[in-house]
Amino acid sequence: FLQNTQDIARKYLNHRSTPFGIFCTTHFMRIYYKTLRPALLLSLISLAVCAHAENVIRQPNRAQENWSQVASENLAPIHDKTAVLRLNQAREKYAHEDYKSVVVLMQTNLAMPEVQNNDSLAGSCFAQLGAAYRELGDMRQAIEHLTSALTRFRRINCRNLQRDCLASIGYAQEFLGQFREAAESYRRAVVLDEEGENDEKKREDSKNLARMQEKAGDIAGALKTWQKLLTETKGNLFAEGECCFGMAGVYERLGN
């Protein structure tokens, strides 16, 4: 029963601003009123939603990792289209979780001088390679290649992909227990979000920043980040709830 409820919770969180999200909310209410023990059921639903929300916060945003699309719409002419073809193949392999093949394809590309001389294409290859290493559990290699991608994307002033690299680097640093470094990566990502006026990504990166600040022992910084985010999301009840949930965790750590 709890698993079914979690599935509905997942769909609700993924579609909460759509008609499907409204359907899920209605589904919750119907069960709530029909059950013989409404208080218990409502608690289970709340637990399922919170558990999934916590899981979502901790996962990297893979939806933003379509690096090969950037190469397909490259900012500079590519004379050897095989490099772009390999990048597209890597995207397909990545989607099917064949990460070792992604590594081989991207290493082949990055051995080509023409790729190295094209910041857009090289950045996409480094980023795809870093994402593959992350999925393989080699976080140090992931950070190394994502940092190379970040450098390339900075050269061509591609801010949205700089942000995506920083968010992925932060995830890998958290995995390695490098909480201060992860907090700095997420802080830089938030700055890019603000420049690009991307509210959704800013909320995600701000939440991760607050978590890393707390883990690094910067309690004051974590509370400040949560409070700032709470102010910015005023009126969005779900986002406000996430902020309050995060702040409650910090105060719990303080024994308050």
Explain what you see:
It is built from 14 helices and no strands. It has 256 residues and is mostly helical. The longest helix has 21 residues, at 38-58.
Q: Note the total helix count.
A: 14
Number of distinct beta strands: 0
Gap from first CA to last CA: 34 Å
In round numbers, the mean pLDDT is 80
Overall, the morphology is elongated
Indicate the structural class.
Answer: mainly alpha
- Give the amount of beta strand, in percent: under 5%
> What can be said about the biggest beta sheet?
none
What is the helix/strand order?
Answer: HHHHHHHHHHHHHH
The Cα radius of gyration reads 21 Å
As residue ranges, the low-confidence spans are 16-20, 53-59, 67-79
In short:
By secondary structure, the chain is mainly α. It has 14 helices and no strands.
